[in-house]
Structure to design on (329 residues):
């Protein structure tokens, strides 16, 4: 998936103000999504909660797009031509529909609901994503993970995993990265991470022991839920800083709520992220863009795609600077 926007989103804080917060109670910051085009102004539109000015990363998670449900017949499906990535891993997770993935590692795979595809593009990789002809509704999330300095030149890789659901406290949990609720994913990463889909039944409260060394983000796909003391609405992401060893999620509505939980220890490195590239400096980005536009072997080649490759946008007339999170509380 390709990053094509430059805007910012809003932040609202949890229900409790600092002076009223019980000792030891975790704060929840609510990150609101902004709508951006996927691949160009006429393309499918998505809701983006990471990155934004108020928060660039949650653990090593540096990008979160949430899209659909889109009726393909009315709005069109996904059609992302070959485009490049550096310094990151992409995590694809669907709620409905089917997407065909091709990359310059030679992978040809399908992305289906409940099945995770993770692609590593350290030094450089390119891929395309196209919804299949039988898809009538497309709905899911696209997530990126920043690679740490020692691994940001990692070789191309692709992993596929189908997590077994766990039933806990009136909820169904599918852990696609890390461990939670007695389930552990075997998928290899370069930093400690947590990624899971959670469906909470109506009028049930889920209590989840979590790693207190992690910060967490809860993205709401469907339903209003209460994370700790804060209500989250669809398309919002609730951020909980490290220190919380239990998260409570209450679905107070009459329908199931669907969520995506992300987590990891604070990343601790500044990154420069522009378009589809993650680097550490302006020069890193310039070099990656030049390599893509020159069709060097850094990113490899995908077979014929209608319309050809996605060209890189023009660089801004300014030096790209690192993204910084607020100070750790």
């Amino acid at each position: 998936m390709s990053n094509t926007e430059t805007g910012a989103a809003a932040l609202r804080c949890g229900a409790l103000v600092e002076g009223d917060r019980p000792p030891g109670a975790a704060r929840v910051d609510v990150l609101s999504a902004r709508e951006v085009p996927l691949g160009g102004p006429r393309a499918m539109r998505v809701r983006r909660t990471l990155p934004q000015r108020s928060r660039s990363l949650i653990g090593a998670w540096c990008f979160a797009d949430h899209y659909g449900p889109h009726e393909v017949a009315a709005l069109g499906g996904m059609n992302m031509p070959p485009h490049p990535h550096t310094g990151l891993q992409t995590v694809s997770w669907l709620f409905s529909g089917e997407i065909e993935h091709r990359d310059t590692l030679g992978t040809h795979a399908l992305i289906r609901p409940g099945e995770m595809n993770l692609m590593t593009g350290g030094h450089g990789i390119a891929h395309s994503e196209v919804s299949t002809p039988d898809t009538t509704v497309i709905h899911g999330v696209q997530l990126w993970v920043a690679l740490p300095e020692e691994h940001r030149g990692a070789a191309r890789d692709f992993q596929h995993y189908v997590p077994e659901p766990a039933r806990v406290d009136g909820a169904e949990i599918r852990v696609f990265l890390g461990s939670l609720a007695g389930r552990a994913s075997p998928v290899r990463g370069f930093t400690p991470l947590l990624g899971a889909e959670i469906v909470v039944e109506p009028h049930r409260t889920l209590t989840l022991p979590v790693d207190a060394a992690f910060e967490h983000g809860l993205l709401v796909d469907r339903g209003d839920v209460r994370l700790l003391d804060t209500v989250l609405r669809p398309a919002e992401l609730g951020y909980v800083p490290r220190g919380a060893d239990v998260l409570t999620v209450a679905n107070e509505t009459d329908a199931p709520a669907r969520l995506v939980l992300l987590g990891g220890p604070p990343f601790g490195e500044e990154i420069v992220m522009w378009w589809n590239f993650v680097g550490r400096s302006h020069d890193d980005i310039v070099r990656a863009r030049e390599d893509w536009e020159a069709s060097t072997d850094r990113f490899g080649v995908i077979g014929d795609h209608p319309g050809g490759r996605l060209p890189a946008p023009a660089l801004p007339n300014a030096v790209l600077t690192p993204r910084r999170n607020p100070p750790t509380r």
